[in-house]
Design brief:
The chain contains five helices and 15 strands. It is of the alpha+beta class.
């Protein structure tokens, strides 16, 4: 059967246009991070913001900072491939508190490679646990993931990866607890930052845990087959101070 090359090219062009229109941004080419600020007026902070994330963490100032109190509860697994990452939407009732402020866990998701770097060095992957307080302020706890032993918690997530993008998979019989994603040591770096994806809104408080968590080479490779690069490059510090808990 002969294929009309012009019709095929037109279809692919329309598909690409529809895909871009649906998502509006990506990680490569003309829709990549360098261009986010120009893609949509709502994304202006991506280009003009002065407190953008992620950052390269170096020269952090040690101090007596309040510890993070985690109060995560088990919840049924709600997982989605949203077209930019694998994300787990979390049920109500789990939270973290610091300095007397309580933030409810909303969702967590993954980046490859890590978006935050330490002294210029990136990790194979990173998890971002996104929290919101009663006033709508956001706080993100970042867990750096290094290649090492198999991670049972991630294994349970990877075993339930959706086969269809942008459609949440609800595995009510699978119970997870985000506490299993955390290292035992909760020391952290903290700084003022932003969302690392459009609209790149600022006013986000970041807590990057200093201790990394293992995942296996196979687990990295499994995510890599879905998202080889979904990390925004590090952004200028612009005078911000990064503090280190003791």
């Amino acid at each position: 059967m002969r294929i009309n090359v012009w019709l095929l090219a037109s279809f692919l062009s329309l598909f690409a246009t529809a895909t871009w229109a649906q998502h509006g941004w990506g990680y490569e080419g003309e829709h990549g991070p360098r261009h986010w600020g120009a893609l949509n007026k709502e994304y202006a902070s991506c280009g003009a913001g002065k407190a953008q994330s992620p950052i390269d963490i170096r020269g952090a100032v040690p101090g007596k900072l309040s510890p993070i109190q985690f109060d995560y509860r088990a919840a049924p697994l709600h997982i989605i491939d949203n077209g930019h990452t694998v994300q787990v939407n979390y049920g109500s009732g789990s939270s973290m508190s610091v300095d007397g402020k309580r933030y409810e866990l909303v969702q967590f998701h993954f980046h490859r490679p890590s978006e935050e770097t330490i002294d210029g060095v990136a990790y194979p992957m990173e998890a971002h646990l996104v929290h919101k307080d009663a006033q709508g302020h956001l706080a993100v706890v970042a867990v750096l993931l290094k290649q090492g032993k198999d991670n049972p918690f991630l294994g349970s997530l990877w075993a339930n990866l959706p086969t269809e993008k942008e459609k949440e998979k609800i595995a009510e019989k699978v119970s997870i607890n985000a506490a299993s994603l955390l290292p035992k040591n909760h020391a952290y770096y903290t700084f003022a930052g932003s969302l690392t994806t459009p609209p790149c809104s600022e006013g986000v408080t970041w807590f990057v845990l200093t201790t990394s968590v293992d995942l296996s080479a196979g687990q990295v490779a499994r995510f890599d087959r879905i998202y080889h690069n979904n990390a925004r490059p590090t952004q200028p510090l612009n005078g911000r101070v990064v503090r280190l808990s003791q």
